[in-house]
Amino acid sequence: MFDEMRPEVLVVGAGPVGLFTALALARRNVNVRIIDTGVWACTHSYALAVHPQALDLFAQFGLREKILSESYAVGRIAFCDQEGTRVSLEAGGEQHPLAVVRQDALENLLEDELEKLGVRVGWRHEAAAVAQADDHARVTVQKFEKESRGYIVAHTEWVVDKTWELEPKFVVGADGSNSRVRRTLDTEFPEVGLAQYFAVFEFKTDADLQHTVRVALDGGTMNVLWPLPGGAARWSFELPDYRPSAPDPVEALRKAGFGDFPSERQKDRVMLSHGLDLPVLDEEHLRRYLRERAPWFTGSIEKLTWRIVARFEHRLAKRFGAGRLWLAGDAAHLTGPAGVHSMNLGFWEGDDLAARIESVLRGGAGAETLASYDARWQSVWKQLHGLERVPAAGPQTDGWVAQHAAQILASLPAWGAAYEDMASRLGLITA
Ligand SMILES: Cc1cc2nc3c(=O)[nH]c(=O)nc-3n(C[C@H](O)[C@H](O)[C@H](O)COP(=O)(O)OP(=O)(O)OC[C@H]3O[C@@H](n4cnc5c(N)ncnc54)[C@H](O)[C@@H]3O)c2cc1C
Hints:
The protein is 29% helix and 31% strand.
């Protein structure tokens, strides 16, 4: 068991990236503590696929087969229009698939692995304030408990039960899109593309989805069909003209200057609405999107199990950290859902950060080791965001692919050399 009161590294946030980063640190024998404001791991699948490259990383931790056993394996990615498939490519194939796994199943697996190494997630713990000195960080941690209140009408409320200070050598901010660690670093988090809204539906279907993810490109919209384990499917339809009728309440508070508010799990923030209260989420709309954008989908819609409208921003932090505070996952970048990039690259960032922190703590490596973490991931993300070294169509490229290059590139489930390789198989070449 690691010493919880004197960790060498504090990971803030127990989403998939924070959990994996803590595991990568614990396996290197770094004394790590991980906390999250949430009551427990997330209860639904948001990001739903683990890239073939990330499975390679999980293999180093002995977790590849466990993840595959809970997954639906996807070997191909097909790009379609209203008529059907225009072009498709192997996304790993049978031997090296994309693993479609529920995010909650993945988080539970990572939490179990951490426990085996003696690291318990501190749920209901908030990093309420973060600061850094020359050779350590300082974090004020608050632990919440439920308290019964009220006389006439009894109710329970979350209240701060305990507050204390930790002084770890490093803090990893895996604390999601509204990251407090990033805000402490005072680094900008500019938009690098337009925000997109998607209506997301999950349902049981009799369609044979043939281990293929399908991206339907129609009239400038991007629509994605994911096969899910257990005979289910997820369709996400881009809503280009969608504007929420009520402003996002958290965004409104932020604009009013309440920068540190609130502390609930930030992944829930981008979820604008569940269920039946929005017309764009009724079954009639689902059938209309299918008729208009993917009439080739003739599978049944047996039981709608989940539907939401989600907003996806495209942002990239100006730096991935400095001194004693470093970022991984959604805390450093946000992007659209189709390529499942933010979570998957987050795993690699977390592992990379763990190795670099270990070498500083144990091997006497200098500050440049961490500075080059920033440079490396800035460069990878600038490519994925279409800001530099963007694979481009040439004279030989299929016309339809050339016309839809930006959307196709955003959907490729890979990064770095593997991403460039996938793009080149479609005739999109990196100069
Ligand atoms: C509805 C929805 C659908 C999505 N669909 C897709 C998809 O199809 N494809 C895709 O790639 N991605 C999708 N995503 C995004 C995906 O879920 C994220 O990219 C992924 O969860 C990022 O993981 P993370 O660990 O970096 O951050 P998160 O999962 O956001 O975890 C951050 C954690 O930090 C905790 N935290 C925050 N502040 C503090 C604090 N001060 N103290 C302690 N803890 C704190 C939060 O409680 C949270 O648990 C979707 C998201 C949503 C909401």
